[in-house]
């Protein structure tokens, strides 16, 4: 005895009404929490779609005949060839299993995206947000003798400790009474690959001044060298020898109440002239080793500092 | 059976029947045989063992790394007792105070070099023997990915002692990445966790070193070894016999045949 036909005969056809019903119920439950109007709308949707669904499901039991489009076909000009000659081309169908496959993959992808996107953002974005370093007060400008460099060492973020130690080479270009103040402030990071550039000259350890965590050491140096790969810079930070691809980075600065305050870093393509008369080609700060001018700079059209600062 | 010896029936009841029970449900015995009981060319040599040697080195790195992770602390904060960064102090603690810590750290530190050297030797063998050719192209490609992830493991692990060598070598390494066109500066800033290395970078590199990259390597190793098992070991270029001999057909008398000595089959 077989009852397979019996099993199949009452399967309802695919229907969108249950989805509407589910949306209505979800809306109703949401409305109970946030707003009675939403709840009412949800209830109406649920009732309407529920009725439509019920009508659909019980159609066969009620003996209603489903509406079927009348079958039409073009009038053939010639008698149709025998159907056995050409294999019937299966028409593209959108079956229940295809629908379930698409929904499973689609919902899975949606759930995956909802979980993955915030986590990816958390993994990547903190490296690019809130990365601006605070301005640093290096103390009274009288501590910077005219015409010689001073090695200034400070913590850009004291909570982070020594990992945030930065070193700048500061040269006062003008006596205070000789006009507008001018400073040359080079960042010690080598623009080849980021090693610490050293001044090529004796550091006056006896002249060390320590003010509020800032260490200032006068140095007799007219050039700077990098110990890692032999990069050599002149007193203006221009490359003299070795692999660096641009001039040493510089700080913007301001003078407030007679104190020298370091601003943000910027990259330098080249410096012509010296001291207060130097003409500096200034670019947004970029990773050491990246060109800021010339043809090679086309390789780095957008650098992070252009976006995050 | 009257002829069956007492020992044979003992083997049957204590070993083979449990194995059959497991195999019927998991196919584990059949899979093990598929993996291990393979024909190899007659004229292979020690050169073909370099891949297994690299795998062994990786297992050593995994085990020693897990133990080191129980003592290492990826923090750049200053330890109030030693006055040095916590990460560096924990390395000193492992090396000087934890019993046998010097040995496990030494195994991990030197084993890293051994692993990378073996990867290169293995790659050189495969290249010189032409073993990357059809049908083993994907084995080669997964092997190249393993080489890259292996090198990245070395790169990320180098920062963790958090001493001057580690720090400045990593600065240079990050900025080397930074010179890549278009996305280089972005990659550098991601790796440094800011325009310069910040305190977040150490923990990030530790997570990459002990979670992300080993996970990638383990996944790649599974694919790599699956392909090796499926495609077989290639004959050397000077081999007289034809490569790619067919596997013998599966025997009907049972999956575990030949797995235990004395259980018949003789294979």
Task: Fill in the keyword field for this structure.
heterodimer, A: 309 residues, alpha+beta, Rieske Iron-sulfur Protein, 2 domains, five-stranded antiparallel sheet, four-stranded antiparallel sheet, 5 helices, B: 267 residues, mainly alpha, Cytochrome Bc1 Complex, Chain C, 9 helices
What is this structure's SSE topology?
The complex is a heterodimer of chains A (309) and B (267).
Chain A (H helix, E strand, L loop, with lengths): L3 H6 L7 H18 L1 H23 L37 H29 L11 E5 L8 E7 L9 E8 L10 E5 L10 E2 L9 E3 L2 E6 L3 E3 L6 E3 L4 E3 L5 E10 L2 E14 L6 E6 L19 H5 L1
Antiparallel strand pairs in A: 1-12, 2-3, 2-7, 3-4, 5-8, 6-7, 8-9, 9-10, 11-12, 12-13
Chain B lengths: L5 H21 L1 H9 L13 H20 L16 H11 L4 H28 L8 H23 L4 H15 L5 H9 L6 H33 L36
In words, what does this structure look like?
The complex is a heterodimer of chains A (309) and B (267). By secondary structure, chain A is an alpha+beta fold. Chain A folds into two domains: 15-63; 136-308, Rieske Iron-sulfur Protein. Chain A is built from five helices and 13 strands. In chain A, the strands form three sheets. Chain A has a five-stranded antiparallel beta sheet, with no helix packed on it. In chain A, strands 1, 11, 12 and 13 form a four-stranded antiparallel beta sheet that branches. In chain A, strands 5-8-9-10 form a four-stranded antiparallel beta sheet, with no helix packed on it. In chain A, a hairpin with a 4-residue loop joins strand 9 and strand 10. Residues 1-8 of chain A have low confidence and may be disordered. Chain B has 267 residues and is an all-alpha fold. Chain B has two domains: 1-38 and 252-267, no CATH class; 45-231, Cytochrome Bc1 Complex, Chain C. Chain B is built from nine helices and no strands. Chain B has helices at 6-26, 28-36, 50-69, 86-96, 101-128, 137-159, 164-178, 184-192, 199-231. The radius of gyration of chain B is 25 Å and the shape is globular. Chain A binds chain B through residues 124, 126-128, 131, 133, 157, 160-164, 166, 189, 192-196, 228, 265, 285-290, 299-301, 303-305, and chain B through 76-78, 85, 168, 171-172, 174-176, 178-179, 181-182, 184-186, 188-190, 192-200.
């Amino acid at each position: 005895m077989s009852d397979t036909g019996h099993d199949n005969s009452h399967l309802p056809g695919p229907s969108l009404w249950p989805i509407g019903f589910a949306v209505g119920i979800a809306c109703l439950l949401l409305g109970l929490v946030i707003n009675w109007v939403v709840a009412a709308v949800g209830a109406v949707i649920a009732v309407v779609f529920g009725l439509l669904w019920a009508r659909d499901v019980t159609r066969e039991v009620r003996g209603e005949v489903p509406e079927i489009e009348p079958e039409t076909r073009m009038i053939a000009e010639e008698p149709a060839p025998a159907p056995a000659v050409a294999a019937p081309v299966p028409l593209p169908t959108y079956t229940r299993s295809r629908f379930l496959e698409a929904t499973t993959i689609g919902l899975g992808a949606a759930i995956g995206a909802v979980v993955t996107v915030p986590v990816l953002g958390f993994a990547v974005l903190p490296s690019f947000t809130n990365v601006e370093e605070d301005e640093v007060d290096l103390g009274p400008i009288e501590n910077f003798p005219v015409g010689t460099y001073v090695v200034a060492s400070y913590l850009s973020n004291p909570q982070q400790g020594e990992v945030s130690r930065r070193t700048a080479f500061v040269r006062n270009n003008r006596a205070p009474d000789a006009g507008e103040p001018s400073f040359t402030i080079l960042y010690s990071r080598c623009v080849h690959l980021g090693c610490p550039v050293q001044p090529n000259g004796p550091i006056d350890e006896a002249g060390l001044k320590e003010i509020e965590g800032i260490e200032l050491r006068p140095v007799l140096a007219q050039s700077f060298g990098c110990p890692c790969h032999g990069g050599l810079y002149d007193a203006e930070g221009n490359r003299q020898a070795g692999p660096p691809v641009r001039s040493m980075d510089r700080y913007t600065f301001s003078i407030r109440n007679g104190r020298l305050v370091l601003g943000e870093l910027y990259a330098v393509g080249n410096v012509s002239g010296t001291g207060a008369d130097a003409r500096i080609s200034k670019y947004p700060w970029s990773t050491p080793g990246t060109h800021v001018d010339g043809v090679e700079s086309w390789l780095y059209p957008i650098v992070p500092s252009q976006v995050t600062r | 059976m009257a002829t069956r010896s007492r020992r044979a029936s003992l083997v049957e009841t204590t070993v083979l029947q449990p194995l059959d029970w497991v195999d019927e449900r998991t196919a584990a015995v059949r899979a093990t045989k598929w993996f291990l009981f393979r024909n190899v060319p007659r004229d292979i040599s020690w050169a073909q063992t370099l891949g297994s040697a690299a795998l062994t080195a990786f297992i050593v790195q995994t085990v020693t790394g897990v133990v080191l992770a129980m003592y290492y602390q990826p923090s750049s904060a200053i330890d109030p007792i030693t006055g040095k960064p916590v990460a560096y102090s924990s390395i000193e603690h492992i090396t000087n105070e934890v019993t046998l810590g010097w040995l496990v750290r030494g195994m991990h530190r030197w084993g890293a070099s051994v692993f990378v050297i073996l990867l290169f030797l293995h790659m050189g063998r495969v290249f010189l023997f032409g073993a990357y050719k059809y049908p083993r192209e994907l084995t080669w490609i997964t092997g190249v990915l393993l080489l890259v992830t292996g090198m990245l493991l070395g790169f990320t692990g180098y920062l963790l002692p958090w001493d001057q060598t580690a720090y400045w070598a990593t600065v240079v390494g990050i900025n080397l990445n930074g010179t890549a066109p278009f996305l280089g500066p972005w990659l550098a800033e991601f790796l440094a966790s800011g325009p310069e290395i910040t305190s977040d970078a150490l923990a990030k590199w530790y997570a990459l070193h002990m979670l992300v990259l080993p996970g990638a390597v383990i996944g790649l190793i599974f694919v790599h070894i699956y392909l090796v098992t499926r495609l077989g070991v290639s004959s050397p270029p000077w081999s007289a016999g034809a490569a790619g001999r067919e596997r013998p057909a599966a025997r009907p008398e049972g999956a575990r045949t030949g797995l235990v000595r004395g259980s018949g089959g003789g294979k």
